[in-house]
């Protein structure tokens, strides 16, 4: 998949495509329906399938720390889109200059002149341009005069409820990982490079792999049973997502203790799939209480994986 970073990097060879536009946060089942339509149109017109997304996401630009929690970092989003078969992604830098562009200018200068869009698919609630003045009707009207077909994809439904990034955030905040998985189409995961931490876990007898949560707001917190992919191997473990209140931490971290794991993996990329929430994060009165609780968390996580394995075997008989 080709990544075009910024409108200024769109070249003549990128002119002529089939496009969809959005945040694609989480690349959930609703997004996948949009991508399926995009790929069908691209095949019919023999043009590259192209996704336009924004970094930072618009609400992060306007609302800063009050923005909704992000589900996926750019790297993870790109990996998921590539897996779905998207050929190109245009990652637009969402800044003051771009935000001040009128809706009509965006269509004429970016979509038509630079990208030469022949078919455009947008969500039914898509708004764009300065003051969010652009909508489907504007796209349709400008498209008709320029030879750009425009269609809206109805919101994908599952269990009579709209699949949306907002609904997934609410499920994660409530600790309902199964509901989140049902809407995402996969386990919710956090990924990143392992960094050096305070080494407190090692001192307490529970060494952890730490990943900085490079987002303004995290969609969930607490202690979870997890599976972590390190290289080509997968390990069970227990993880804390939060700011370590017992140690008066202020920076949000993902801390993962992997079972039967002794390797040093600083600097390596790790993907951590959250399987079940065990409890909320809270502050303990002393290290003895913390150690006792961690031991209990490990017991419960191992019980979860034992029961999951038993259920999988039973289901296959």
TrEMBL record:
Catalysed reaction equations from the record: FMN + ATP + H(+) = FAD + diphosphate; riboflavin + ATP = FMN + ADP + H(+)
UniProt KW Cell membrane keyword: no
EC number: 2.7.1.26, 2.7.7.2
Pfam family, one: Flavokinase
GO molecular function: ATP binding; FMN adenylyltransferase activity; riboflavin kinase activity
InterPro entries from the UniProt entry: FAD_synthase (IPR015864), Riboflavin_kinase (IPR023468), Riboflavin_kinase_bac (IPR002606), Riboflavin_kinase_bac/euk (IPR015865), Riboflavin_kinase_dom_sf (IPR023465), Rossmann-like_a/b/a_fold (IPR014729)
Enzyme class: transferase
TM annotation in the entry: none
Gene3D superfamilies noted in UniProt: HUPs (3.40.50.620), Riboflavin kinase-like (2.40.30.30)
SMART domains, sorted: Flavokinase
GO BP terms: FAD biosynthetic process; FMN biosynthetic process; riboflavin biosynthetic process
UniProtKB keywords: ATP-binding, FAD, Flavoprotein, FMN, Kinase, Multifunctional enzyme, Nucleotide-binding, Nucleotidyltransferase, Transferase
Pathway info: Cofactor biosynthesis; FMN biosynthesis; FMN from riboflavin (ATP route): step 1/1; Cofactor biosynthesis; FAD biosynthesis; FAD from FMN: step 1/1
Residues in Riboflavin kinase domain copies: 183-306
Source superkingdom: Bacteria
Biological function: Catalyzes the phosphorylation of riboflavin to FMN followed by the adenylation of FMN to FAD.
Stated family: Belongs to the ribF family.
Protein name as it appears in the record: Riboflavin biosynthesis protein
């Amino acid at each position: 998949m080709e990544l075009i970073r910024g409108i200024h990097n769109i070249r003549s060879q990128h002119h002529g495509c089939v496009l969809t536009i959005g945040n694609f946060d989480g690349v959930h089942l609703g997004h996948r329906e949009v991508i399926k339509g995009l790929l069908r149109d691209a095949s019919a017109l023999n043009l590259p399938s192209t996704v336009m997304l924004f970094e930072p996401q618009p609400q992060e630009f306007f609302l800063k720390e009050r923005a909704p929690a992000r589900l996926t970092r750019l790297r993870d989003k790109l990996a998921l889109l590539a897996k779905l078969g998207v050929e190109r992604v245009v990652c637009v830098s969402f800044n003051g200059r771009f935000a001040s562009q009128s809706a009509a200018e965006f269509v004429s200068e970016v979509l038509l002149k630079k990208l030469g869009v022949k078919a455009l698919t947008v969500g039914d609630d898509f708004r764009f341009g300065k003051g969010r003045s652009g909508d489907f009707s504007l796209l349709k009207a400008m498209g008709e005069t320029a030879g750009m077909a425009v269609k809206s994809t109805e919101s994908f439904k599952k269990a009579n409820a709209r699949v949306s990034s907002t609904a997934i955030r609410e499920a994660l905040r409530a600790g309902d990982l199964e509901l989140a998985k049902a809407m995402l189409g996969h386990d919710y995961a956090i990924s990143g490079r392992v960094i050096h931490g305070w080494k407190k876990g090692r001192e307490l007898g529970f060494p952890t792999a730490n990943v900085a949560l490079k987002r303004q707001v995290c969609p969930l917190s607490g202690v979870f049973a997890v599976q972590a992919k390190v290289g080509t191997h997968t390990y069970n473990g227990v993880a804390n997502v939060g700011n370590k209140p017992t140690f008066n931490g202020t920076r949000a971290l993902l801390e993962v203790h992997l079972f039967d794991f002794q390797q040093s993996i600083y600097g390596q990329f790790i993907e951590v799939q959250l399987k079940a929430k065990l409890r909320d994060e809270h502050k303990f009165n002393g290290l003895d209480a913390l150690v006792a609780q961690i031991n209990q968390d490990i017991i419960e996580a191992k019980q979860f994986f034992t029961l999951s394995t038993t259920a999988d075997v039973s289901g296959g008989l």
